[in-house]
Structure formats: structure tokens, C-alpha cells
Amino acid sequence: MSADLTAAATALADVPHVPGSPKPDPILVADDVTRRFGGMTAVDVGHLEVQRGAITALIGPNGAGKTTLFNLLTGFDQPNSGTWSFEGRSLGGVAAARVARAGMVRTFQLTKALSRMTVIENMLLGGSAQPGEQLWRALVPGLWRSREDELVIKAEELLERFSLLDKREDFAGSLSGGQRKLLEMARALMSDPTMVMLDEPMAGVNPALTQSLLGHIQALRDDGTTVLFVEHDMHMVRHISDWVAVMAEGRLVAEGPPATVMADPAVIDAYLGAHHDTDLGDDALLTDEVAHELEAEALAEAKVRASAEEEVR
Amino acid sequence: MDWTRIFSNVAGELIAPTTAAYALAAVGLNVHFGLTGLLNFGQAGFMLLGAYGFAISTIAGFPVWGATLVAIACSVVFALILGIPTLKLRGDYLAIVTIAAAEIVRIVGRSTALTGLTGASSGLRGDSYKKTFTDLSPLPDGTTSLGPFSYSNNASNSWWIRIVGWAVVLLACWLVWRLLNSPWGRVLKGIREDEDAVRSLGKNVYGYKMQALVLGGVIGALAGVIYVMPRAVQPDSMGRPMTFWVWTILLLGGAATVFGPVLGSMLFWAALMLIKTVGRDLIPSTVMRAEQIEQFGWIVVGVTLMLLVIFRPQGILGDPKELAINVR
User: What percent of chain A clears pLDDT 70, i.e. is strictly above it?
Assistant: First the structure.
């Protein structure tokens, strides 16, 4: 295992395995980010740092607040409180389009391929610094034609890499679900982002395609792009991520390298519940000590919940 | 039956100033709906504002170019007022706000409090604002016949307004063609498909929607100016029905196409004229009187619009492949 440790994983070797641990070279730093929907706290992250040039996985059971956190960080949702900075620049309350222009580009859990546009049009839309996207300059092709040619070359390279080049002139709506995922990822890369945020890149992708997608994500990291992704597929998380952050009920509950984080009791609790390995038929459970212990635990839990509810009010 | 008269009446509609005005209004609506997906149900409001802006400022002594600038400025302000509160919301809200705002413009225009300015419900007479425009004409006075068409050169329903009107239509078509095939047009198409996706790629969606709303509104205002040239500014003739005829024309020709609105407008008015003239000859007045035949024509328009949306949503010139893909 140690032989094929990546540079990013090596850089993270000395980072303590606790939630909110400081990283040697963080690209994204978030503090006290909360988002409530009515009385429900969807996200309550005290401190989170994401290492530059590494693949960080964000995992957690359903409803843990991973996608909500994504939406907040990329400007698609507004937090109730919190600040975060990207490459030292504060991005709290900044509009989604400006977040993307700052170099943090995201994809969506439900793919947003622009169906009635061709694959190449989809790609070109992702291009940056195209002067022809301004109304007045659009009227004079001489002002944007050369940039357009550059973008076409770049788009074709990316399509080639994602084996979509033969679909160049097809409408995006005619692609399969997996191909749309690929297209969306390729489109996000058109602007050379410093960080890509992938929301469940593997959902609905067939296993054969998964392998090549994994390769693409690792290649991105090797080219110096920071990757943060949300995923449910543990095989994928273990296979490609350098660091894993685990969320449960809106909080960050554990962090660590993929090999060890899965064994963290907090993670197992989050996924399976605290007493998942207790045999309910075991007579030992009937002893007084155990009964008291469980009672005390339940009381403590109820107290925590009550105080949390009060806070909301 | 007098087929030559029917033919020349129908052919006359193809190049009529009204046809040009509606084509232009549909080009403007095409920028809203076809390119950007904005549901503007108040195009008649933009047209009426343009007409008022031009006529009132001409009466106040403005030259033609100045009055045209006033018409454009009115529509820009109107578009900003409509767009600022609604373009951040979902598309349906714009539809509601535009239909209401167009009615407000009409009702305010026809209110007696403004009789001195807008002439209230009787409107502004054509003679009061036409002179500066007809004076620009290089054509000699008199009447010219060209094939079946015979119109005066400069007076009211003239060759001059036809030439200028269709020139503006062609210019607008060129503009849309240029923009449709530019990166700017590509961003608009992206917004039509999925706003959030475009936002995630770093484009300021709100700004683009506003630009489209203003541009289409300005084209609509110019259409209003052309529309009132051979007639008078009558607020009640530029109400909700006008907006829906513009929609019919756009959907008939094909949204998101360059010449769709022009073809749609020609077909629309020619077909209406055909129904009217043939109907008057064939249907005895005991079955339907002349004005009933006119109303019958509009019924046919309504049915056509429904059939179009159901059976050929892409219109005559639209790409069926583009609409064949089920978006949602």
C-alpha cells in the first residue's frame, strides 16, 4: 500500500484523523457553516479544510447534508451563518456564477446536460473568457472567432479524453445517462477550474464506464486540480480518494485516509447506528448494568436533542 | 367569383405594413421566447409604448430620429421595470407580470385623465404624427402601380412605409441571425434549457435574461411605431388579442428560427384575408353577414393555434429534431 501512495496522500500523512483537522496546504477553508430548513438543521459544519491537489471524498448516509453543503459552498444556496474562503478569497454570499469564475466549478447530482443543444455546444458553453458572450461584441465575429477556434480545439481534446468525440454533433438529450455524466464533467473542465466539485459522479453510470471515470478523476488530480466529491459508492471512495470527510446529521463526524476512516466508530455509528453489532437476543443485555447504561445513553441523547431544538427557537 | 381581386387582396397582405409590423413584433418575441425561453405575454404593451413614445414626442416637435429614440427608451425602461423583480423568479411569474403590465399601459393610455397627452380612448389621429416620417420620403408624390399592387407613394398606407417597414424587419432578422450564431446566443439557448447549469459554468444568468428582455422589447416598440404609421394610435386595438396574434405568428413560423416570424406573419395575414374574401363571395348573407365572416376568421385563427401547438410545436421552419427530445 505504501508503495503506491500518491503525493497528495503523502502530504496528508501527518494530518490528525479528527473532524476539522488542519491541512498543510488548504485550498478551501469553511467555518461555522449552518443551514436550517425550518426547524431542521441540514448543515452545521464547525470547521472544514480541503487539501489542495488532493481528491477528497465527502461521504455520509442519506440526508447527512452533503449536497446542501455543496450548494452552499458553490453559491447555489444561502447559509444561515458561516464564512468560507477559496484560495484565500472569501466566497460567502457570492453568486454562483462568480464562484464558478473564481475557479470552483461544480456538477450536479441530477445531471444537467442541456438537452436541446449539441454536445459540442454544451462544451463550448463551458469555455471561459469568450468575448463573444457580450452582446455588442457578439455582432462582430472578428472579435470572437479566434477565441472560438481555441475553445473548439480544447473541447475536442476533452471529448476525445472522455470518448465522446463521435457524438460531437448529437443533441445532448440523445445521450445515455452515463454519457451525460461524462459530458457534464468534461464541460466543467472547459474553464480549467482549480477545483471541481462532483456531486455523485458515479450515480447511474454502468460499471464499465465507472472504471474510466475513476481514471479521469485521478488524471485530473495528477494535473493539479483539486477534487471534492460526494459519493455513496464505497468501492470508488476507497479506490481513488486521498482523504475522506464523513458527515452525519449535518455535522462533520470524522476525517481520515480511506483505509482507516471506514473503521472509525463514529463512521460506523453514523451509517449503521450505535448498537449495530449488539445481539438483541443476548441474555447479557438483561443485566442491570447494561440496562442502566442504555438508559443513561438515551437520556443524554434526549438532552442533546432538546437543547438543539431550543437553540433553533 | 372574382379570383383576380381575391388574389390581389391576398397578395397585398403579404407586403402590407401591418404584416411587417407583426413580423417585427414576432422577431422581438422570438428573442424572448425562442432564444431565451422567457414567457412574455405583454408584447402588445411594448408595441403600444413604442407607438405612444413616437407619436407623443413627434407632436411635441421631435424629429423622426429623436422620436424613434424616445420609443426605444420607453421600451427599455418598461423592460427594466418588468425584469428587475421577476427575472430572478421562475418563468411563470414573468408571464403573469407582463400580461398585467401590458394591460396597465393600455388602460392608463386610454384614461380620460391623460386626454391631453394620449387622446384617451379615441387615441391620437394619424395626421398628427405622420408628417415628419412622410417628409423623409425620397419618392415623388403620386401613386405607383407594380403588378397587382397600387398604392400612393407617400400618403398614409404608402409604398414608403412598406419600404421602411420591411427594411427594418430584414435588419432585425439579420440581427437575430447574427446573435443566434454567436456565443451570446449560445448562452441564451443554455438558459432556455437549464438556468442552473449555465450558472454553474460562470455565466451571469440574470444579466443575460435582462439583455434579452430589453432587446426583444426594443424590437417590439419599433414594430409598434410601424404598426401605427398607416393608421392611428388606438390603445384598444393594441390589447391582449394583439399579443396572442404575435404568439400565433411566432409559433406558426417556428420559434428559435431566423425567418420563422416573417413567414408566420405573411401566412397569418394572407390566410385571414383569404378566408374573409372567399367567405364573402361564397357564403350567402342569410347564413353569415360580412362582420360575422370576419369573426369566423378569428375563430379559425384560435383553432389553428391549438392545432399547431399540439401537432407541430416547432412550427413550419423549426427543426423537429430539436423538439423531439423530451426535456422534462
Answer: 91
C-alpha distances out from residue B123 to A43, A77, B71, B111, B119, Å? 60, 49, 17, 10, 4
Q: Give the neighbor-by-neighbor strand order of the sheet with A104-106.
A: A104-106, A195-199, A226-230, A55-59, A243-248, A251-256
Q: Render B144-187 in DSSP notation, one character per residue.
A: EEETTEEEESSSSS-HHHHHHHHHHHHHHHHHHHHHHTSHHHHH
Write the DSSP assignment of A25-93 as a string of letters: SEEEEEEEEEEEETTEEEEEEEEEEEETTSEEEEE-STTSSHHHHHHHHTTSS--SEEEEEETTEE-TT
DSSP letter string over B186-201? HHHHHHHH-HHHHHHT
Using the predicted structure, report yes or no on whether residue B325 has a pLDDT greater than 60: no
pLDDT tens digit string along A50-106? 888 889 989 888 888 888 888 898 888 888 888 888 888 888 888 888 889 888 999
Residue B263: is its pLDDT beyond 90? yes
> In the numeric block, which cell numbers belong to residue B260?
420563422
Residues facing A245 on adjacent strands: A58, A255
d(CA B314, CA B41): 19
Mutate to test the interface with B, among A98, A125, A136, A140 (most CBs of B within 10 A): A125
Closest to B129 measured CA to CA, from B225, B212, B7, B42 = B225
| Cβ-Cβ contacts under 8 Å for A177 (sequence gap 6 or more) | A111, A204, A205
A-B interface: how many C-beta pairs under 8 angstroms?
Answer: 107
The per-residue pLDDT of chain A, averaged, comes to 83
| Cβ contact, residue pair A97, B199, below 8 Å | yes
Rounded to an integer, the average pLDDT of A145-174 is 89
Q: Which residue out of B36, B193, B215, B218 would a mutagenesis test of the A interface target, given it has the greatest number of A Cβ atoms within 10 Å?
A: B193
- Counted residue by residue, chain B has a size of 328
Distance between A146 CA and the closest CA of chain B, angstroms: 12
What gap in Å lies between CA B158 and CA B186, rounded to an integer?
Answer: 39
Q: B175-211: per-residue pLDDT in tens? A: 999 999 999 999 999 999 888 899 999 999 999 999 9
Direct distance between the N- and C-terminal alpha carbons of chain A, in angstroms, rounded to an integer: 50
Q: How far apart are CA B91 and CA B40, in angstroms?
A: 9
Confidence check: pLDDT of B302 > 80: yes
Q: Give the relative orientation of helices B64-86 and B127-135 as an angle to the nearest 10 degrees.
A: 120
- Cβ neighbour number for residue B241 with a 10 Å cutoff: 13
Q: Kindly indicate the confidence band of residue B323, based on its pLDDT and cuts at 50, 70 and 90.
A: low
ipTM beyond cut 0.90:
no
Closest to A227 (Cα-Cα) out of A235, A122, A236: A236
Residues of A in contact with B326 (CB under 8 A): 173
Least confident window among A29-33, A184-188, B150-154: B150-154
Q: Is the pTM of this model over 0.90?
A: no
